[in-house]
Amino acid sequence: MSTRADELRANLEQVQERIEKACQAAGRGRDEVTLVAITKTFPISDVRALAALGVTDVGENREQELKAKAPDCPDLSWHFVGQLQSKKARSVVRYASVVHSVDRDSLVDALSKAAVAEAKTVRCLIQVSLAAYGSADAASGAIRGGVEPSAVPALATRIAAAEGLELGGVMAVAPLGSDPDEAFAGLRDVASRLRSEHPGADWISAGMTGDLEAAIKHGATHVRLGRALLGTRTPLG
Fold it and tell me: Using an 8 Å Cβ cutoff, are 73 and 89 in contact?
């Protein structure tokens, strides 16, 4: 009888094969792309199982899940990928080394204050809205968060100057109903302009279960996968 560990192993093998093929198609090395396992709504036992299979980076999009799980697996690299209220910055900084969803000055200030208090450095990615890229339906993607591309330089400058923070690059979610290939091409351009001013900000966090190939084609360094690894999520109450 198949166990949960067997299921996760099979899923991980399929995901790794997809990433490998996408890298080959893009003329990139497999080591250029990091898999971030998004474990929201799934138990810590799944996190432990994935860690045993070699997964090193885990992401959560809810502060309460991050603080519940991270202490149990402190050797993993924990990423926060969801929309973040400034009042929860201290809690997130306590457990995560990377925040993918920085989208406003007030959050930068809150994260900086928290990082200083925790005596640590937090890598921050600017979440970019890609609503302007893609199809006529793309406006629906605006609800997925992020700043307009034109606002990236100013926010990047604020992060780079903030104590306790490190400007890491950009993150985005392809707009609902749009062509992810076109959307991620736009993100690649935003990332390129950012690197011209901040050479060390070389992360592109993009691509999920349904569009990781398009993201890797356009330079994603981190793909955020949940469903492909863990299956269909059970809604939280």
Answer: no
Q: Which residue has the tokens 């997925």?
A: 144
Domains of the chain: 4-230 (3.20.20.10)
pLDDT at 164: 98
How many other C-beta atoms can be found within 10 angstroms of the C-beta atom of residue 25? Answer: 11
Q: Can you tell me the distance from the alpha carbon of 145 to that of 130, in angstroms, rounded to the nearest whole number?
A: 9
Q: What is the pLDDT of residues 218-227, one digit of tens each?
A: 999 999 999 9
pTM of the predicted model as reported, rounded to 2 decimal places = 0.94
Best CA proximity match to 207, nearest among 175, 174, 169 = 174
Distance CA 85, CA 53 (A): 33
Q: For a pLDDT cut of 70, what percent of the chain falls above it?
A: 93
